Amino acid sequence: MLTIVKQLLIKPIIASIANKFVKLHHYSKKVVPNSNIHFGIFSKNKLSGVMQFGSPINKKGTINLVKNTKWYGMLELNRMVFLNNLPKNSESRAIAVCMKLIKKHYPQIEWVVSFADGTQCGDGIIYRASGFVLTAIRENTAIRINPKTGESVHIIQAHHKMITKEFKKWQPIKGFQLRYIYFLNQEAKNRLTVPIIPFSKIKEMGASMYKGLRVPNSRVSDDQSKIDGANPIHSLQK
Asked: What digits encode the pLDDT tens for the residues 178-226?
């Protein structure tokens, strides 16, 4: 289960190594405990990227995006982070290889969902270049700022605080969350229960963001435009 492509070596790695890399290099500095498939992307024998897959935290709500999906028939790309020293187009190549490995070794998996965090990171340009389809663009209400620490917190992380008056005052970060789906089984695409949205809708809605910076002509105010980031995903915030 090892693949070499365009100066990259891609292979499974253990959770502890993947988690350490994500905590060090991912903009959220957090891992998703649900992740159970971990791929390392190596360049010149150095670990330069990590992709982690697992069940969505809200699996009951997510699995219905594709009708008749079995309980173990889908995954979420929980975390994805690449260093800047990788060769051009390494991200899309790595995604393609990881998807092929999942399809080969986990044939029950029909599709993979992932989320681009257009509040702090990007609108999912890597997904669009890698064959994902866009299925949702929503203004962010889930990721909020802790006014005392300045930390961004997803409502799932703060579920124990949601009923408090203090939490209700926390302001959501301005921006969008975008949902993408990759079909390992093309027949499953016919069972998609939500519309496929044209990529042009991202710019039209003012949801464009790249590497943590708001793209010009976005209708979202620039108050949050200087928040830095390195990578996509709603699930990345969980």
From this structure: 999 999 999 999 999 999 999 999 999 999 988 777 776 655 433 333 3
> How many Cβ atoms sit within 10 Å of the Cβ of residue 38?
23
Per-position b or e across 42-62, b if 16+ CB within 10 A of its CB = bbeeebbbbbbbbbbbeeeeb
What pairs with residue 49 in β-bridges? Answer: 41, 82
Instruction: Report the predicted TM-score, pTM, of the whole model to 2 decimal places.
Output: 0.80
Q: Following DSSP, what letter does each residue of 103-158 receive, concatenated?
A: HHH-TT--EEEEEEEETTT-S-HHHHTTT-EEEEEEE--SEEE-TTT--EEETTTT
Q: Which residues neighbour 161 within 8 Å (Cβ) at sequence distance 6 or greater?
A: 167
User: Can you give the residue ranges of every domain in the chain?
Assistant: 53-237
Instruction: Specify the DSSP element, H or E, that contains 203.
Output: helix 200-204
Structure tokens at 226: 């200087």
CA distance 21 to 47: 9
Tokens read off for 177: 């969350």
Q: Whole-angstrom Cα distance, residue 182 to residue 175?
A: 23
* Burial (Cβ within 10 Å: 0-12, 13-18, ≥19) of residue 157: middle
Task: Tell me if residue 19 falls in helix, strand or coil.
Answer: helix
